[in-house]
Every structure is written in structure tokens, then in C-alpha cells.
Design brief:
Elements: E1 5-8, H1 18-31, H2 38-41, H3 49-59, H4 66-84, H5 96-105, E2 110-113, H6 119-125, E3 134-136, H7 149-158, E4 165-169, H8 172-180, E5 184-188, E6 199-201, H9 209-217
Parallel strand pairs: 1-2, 1-4, 2-3, 4-5, 5-6
């Protein structure tokens, strides 16, 4: 059993697919007759597709039957898939490959823990899938973050105790989930928003080898 396991969120941590989610939700909102802003899109960070649609309909003051709701869920995802179809390695966020390579060279078990139901095809498109020993995504779990289910399942798959896991997250709900699971939470993004994280970095370019070694040695 490995001493330490690393779990990465996908959107906003490894790749920036948030812009494609935004464009797909905006398209749906416009079809339903209202505007959807980038500021409102912040409410969707780390949230399941079902919950996002509930928020969107609330913003537009739209009432929906279950059939309409299900149809719009599918429509949004189809639009999103069209956007990500064009993704390639240029979409990887700064220095992510360096960190993944550093951990892989040391045989550190790594998992993806994401609400996305398209995590695997995205990782294949950006050529990072081979770094991960386990993919836990929206197809695997029933509870959305801040419930820690996604991270606990990832830890179990990696055969690492939750308290020995390190989680990289860009969303408040994800940081909460990691903390509830008693994992080391690392916020990627705005420190003022992700203040509950144990450590904060604007992005992976700020994370040097000494810090990563420290996580492995539990000396930070």
C-alpha cells in the first residue's frame, strides 16, 4: 500500500473546460429566452449537471416538466461535447504535465476525481490519460461535492488511506469535500475564494519540486 495518493479535479485544475460549459449553458439560456452571464456561471463551479440546470432555470424563472428538464440536460451535454471535440494538448493548464511527470516518475498513485461525465474522453484528447491509475467521475458517483464520495472512492481505488491523500481543486465545494474526507486540500486559483484549503496556489507554476517532495514526505 502506497504511503501517499494524489487526486486531481479536472475542470479548472488540469484543463480549462469551464469556458465550454459556459458556452453550452449560455446557448441553452438564450434558446429559453434569457441571458446567462459569466458572473452567474461562477455558481456552477464543481456542481453536477442536474444542479446546474436547476440553477439556470431558477435564474431564468423557467418552470419545466420532467420531460423538458431531461431533454435540456441532454441538449446541453451534446452542445458541450461538440465544443470539447476540438480540444487538444494546448488546452492543458500551465505546468500540469510537469507535476504529473514528477509524481509518475516516483510511482505515486494518481486518480482523477471529477463531477464531469466526460472526464475520460477529455483526458484522452489532451493525451494525459496514461498518468492516472483511476478515473472517478460523474458516471461513478451518486453524490455531488461537497459530499466526499468522489474522493473517498478514488482513495479506495488507489488503496491509499484518505488521510494520506492530497487533493487539487479549484472549487469551494471540492475543497470542502477534501476537508470532510480528512485529505490534504490544495486550492488552485483565487486564494480569497479557496481560503478553506490547506495550501493555495494560483496555478501549478507556483508549485516547486521541494513542495511536492514535502507532500510525499509529509513534512510540509
Amino acid at each position: 500500500m502506497s504511503k501517499t495518493g494524489f487526486i486531481f479535479d479536472l475542470d479548472g485544475v488540469i484543463v480549462d473546460t469551464a469556458k465550454y460549459h459556459y458556452l453550452a449553458w449560455k446557448k441553452l439560456a438564450n434558446e429559453l429566452g434569457f441571458e446567462f452571464t459569466k458572473e452567474q456561471n461562477e455558481l456552477f463551479k464543481g456542481v453536477s449537471r442536474k444542479k446546474c440546470l436547476e440553477i439556470l432555470l431558477d435564474i431564468g424563472n423557467i418552470k419545466a416538466t420532467q420531460e423538458q428538464f431531461d431533454t435540456w440536460m441532454v441538449e446541453k451535454n451534446e452542445d458541450y461535447l461538440e465544443f470539447i471535440e476540438k480540444m487538444d494538448s494546448s488546452e492543458i493548464l500551465p505546468d500540469v504535465p510537469r507535476v504529473l511527470k514528477f509524481l509518475k516518475e516516483r510511482n505515486i498513485p494518481m486518480a482523477l476525481g471529477s463531477a464531469s461525465k466526460n472526464a475520460k474522453p477529455i483526458l484522452e484528447k489532451v493525451k494525459l490519460l496514461h498518468y492516472f491509475d483511476s478515473i472517478v467521475d460523474g458516471n461513478s458517483v451518486t453524490k455531488a461535492k461537497p459530499d466526499p464520495e468522489v474522493f473517498l472512492m478514488a482513495a479506495e481505488n488507489l488503496k491509499v488511506h484518505p488521510s494520506a491523500c492530497v487533493v487539487f481543486e479549484d472549487a469551494v465545494a471540492g475543497i470542502e469535500a477534501a476537508n470532510i474526507a480528512n485529505m490534504t486540500s490544495i486550492g488552485i486559483g483565487d486564494e480569497s475564494i479557496l481560503s478553506e484549503a490547506k495550501f493555495n496556489f494560483k496555478d501549478f507554476t507556483e508549485m516547486d519540486a521541494d513542495f511536492l517532495e514535502g507532500l510525499l514526505n509529509e513534512s510540509v
